[in-house]
Amino acid sequence: MTRTGSDSLQTRQTLTVDGKEYDYFSLPKAAEKIGDVSKLPYTLKVLLENLLRFEDSRSVSTDDVKAVQAWLTNKGKTEHEVAYRPARVLMQDFTGVPAVVDLAAMREAMVSLGGDPQKINPLVPVDLVIDHSVMVDEFGNAKAFQQNVELEFERNKERYEFLKWGQTAFKNFRVVPPGTGICHQVNLEYLAQAIWVAEDENNKGRHVAYPDTLVGTDSHTTMVNGLAVLGWGVGGIEAEAAMLGQPVSMLIPEVVGFKLTGKMKEGTTATDLVLTVTNMLRAKGVVGKFVEFYGPGLDNMTLADRATIANMAPEYGATCGFFPIDNETLNYLRFTGRDEHRVKVVEEYAKAQGMWRDASSPDPVFTDTLELDMGSVVATLAGPKRPQDKILLKDAAADFKKSAGSILGR
Amino acid sequence: MPRLISKKVLAASLGVDAKGAASDMLEEGGGAVPMDTTDKGIAVAGENYKLNHGDVVIAAITSCTNTSNPSVLIAAGLVAKKARALGLERKPWVKTSLAPGSQVVTDYLAKAGLQDDLDAMGFNLVGYGCTTCIGNSGPLPGPIGDAVEKGDLNVTAVLSGNRNFEGRISPHVKSNYLASPPLVVAYAIAGSMQIDMLNDPIAKDKNGKDVFLKDIWPTNAEIQDLIKKSLSREMFVERYSDVFKGPKEWQAIGGKASGQTYQWQDASTYVQNPPFFSEMKAQPAPTSDITGAYALAILGDSVTTDHISPAGSIKKDSPAGAYLTEHQVRPIDFNSYGSRRGNDRVMTRGTFANIRIKNEMLEGVEGGYTKHVPSGEQMSIYDAAVKYRAAGTPLVVIGGKEYGTGSSRDWAAKGTRLLGVKAVVAESFERIHRSNLVGMGVMPLQFKNGESRTSLGLKGNETFDIHGISGDIKPRMDVKMTIHYADGKSKDVTLLCRIDTLDEVDYYKNGGILHYVLRSLAA
Cβ of B259 and A165 within 8 Å? Predict the structure, then answer.
């Protein structure tokens, strides 16, 4: 179930995929009223759709919608705050526990008010993946895994018991148990859908299709930007607000375009590339801004490599590091076992909304751009104490010798 | 300043009269000087090797960044395979680990026949989770840790992670390098950051012949070929078909894990029922003016959320430490504020408890202290808040510019509320913390007309009345504050109410976002 707004601009349209109908809030339709939006960065198209869908003349107004269109002229240099409602929330165990504690306390309070505690549930889908508690006590032998798991359960009994209660008590709340994986991988490989569909609460029986978006309580939530899912890490209160269907307030950001050209050289890896990108973007200064990747390099880049680059957005300082929907996105969705009908919805929806990228797509307008020939990337490390301090492998031994003394404060 | 090194100092770093140069510099107070990185070794108890600066003591394939990327994981496996074929092993002082981000990784490494090779290099599976990258690297073997301490060695970690801030990875490791999974395996075999991986041999094979990195590095074609042969759609479908089931230890958790409300455990020091709703009524009480408030703290510019709600270790003599001690928790088990965010009793005591926070109400005192104005006594901010609450006295916090800057932290706003603070008056607010304060029912107010705590001469012995918030509240309206100075004089100032939107007005009137949602659902 999802809410929809009052649609003052009358952009609601229908998309039919395999004979199944989905309503959506059309950007081309909006453009007829507010002016061309086809050249907006993909990330801002996602934001614009969100505002169209929730426009209610109160928390989201048609002025907010127009402000996104006006970005094409002011490029995000004009401060305009909007209320953004992500489709779902991703949590990990460290930061997720207090949010679930608050929900549990709300149930208790509901009983005190004489109400039904079962009414207290997250209003958007919430997934909590337990990944932060396992420690490497045992290593280098065949029993290491089992022994570490046992120690983990011993140490975290109180919290796990509590989370397991939450999993059974709350609707819209799922817990991925310890020992399964890291939240961002589970998100990438399983939870994320690129385009989300849900029944319209205000128009029962109708299903709405919209971009999969989220906030997460872990900073590397941006990893799923590699799958064209807009999302980033937030603090607990914003996550709780999103969980309870309340908007997250944000400024319409500047968007920096990062053009990728060429192809990685023999012997180099995605890690070398992301450490290079991180170093470049830190030097550029992208704090508080969106970053969007574009250019012919995307045609040669696997989704796994895109996710690796998107992952380190907090290290390069950006709010997100986004890759738009293209053929590779669809291939990855299929290969990881997503439903074939959904993959078709993703393709049809993206094409209808101008959110589809291929080799012939014109470049979006950006606030600023930079460029990297991936063929220039060589084996790279980063350290000794900041992820943006790139060191070429060929210089690593010398660099260690240089930095070693100062790190000990000698 | 490692990058602004003189030639003389550089020579020292390479071992030329290093000790002499270093001590000269120290006597001159010359600041950072590279150590003698060639200075050989501290014996490791029970082992036949010595430990030196630069030795890799942690080599970890870890973190969300890389461990779901087949190309780098297969590459790591291929490095292990080639190394094993040459008879190479990891160096014995390296703590090696493989913590994939997803179980599918285990399937394709096994299918490719590479997990055996990784095991042979010490990269056995240790868990599926964040592990080393978030500092869960576990202790180093005792004798290794002892040698590091004894020699004050600058040993290293090489990890395929995304963060390497000082002190994050392991307390024993000062230099931490992020690198690709195949390089992590190569460094485990080489064993030292002092080896030039491109030009030096990294090890000797079983016949005593030098092996170079290029001898064990896979080609892109080899990697792509194995990915094609080893990964399949079925692996994803199979692994995720039952993703919520979990291991037997998870399935065994039962008992309290049922019921519509949670059975809070009095004895738990990790999870407690927070008192946000303790006196909540079905209808919100009308908002009222704040009268006779004292300042709990007067703070300067750029107070961060980490000042307001620290995430790190809990001091034994702090209010939170005292609480844990009362509950039979030994200091060694205190854990961090971060891990105890499910317990408001720890977190409220930790609010404004950062050891570096500076309350201008006290001269020359750092840390979470204040003056309890009625008694004139200096005490912890938490203890003062408890006294004020007992007396029914409302509180305000006065701040400077960019109040609440830094990363968003829920407890910075929750703790402020639970201490009994009704309003924060500052020159400017960081955007997210401002909205968090409103979300927790605390009113953010902004000085206008260039006024500030200094221009108004606030010392902390004043009382404050805030008028005009008992009736209709409008976003960004003006609010009047009367300051009653200790000398009997008073002054009215106009403040900007930083409740910015209509939604926020609803949150505030209800006592916070949680209360607002609760009442809408109860209706």
Answer: yes
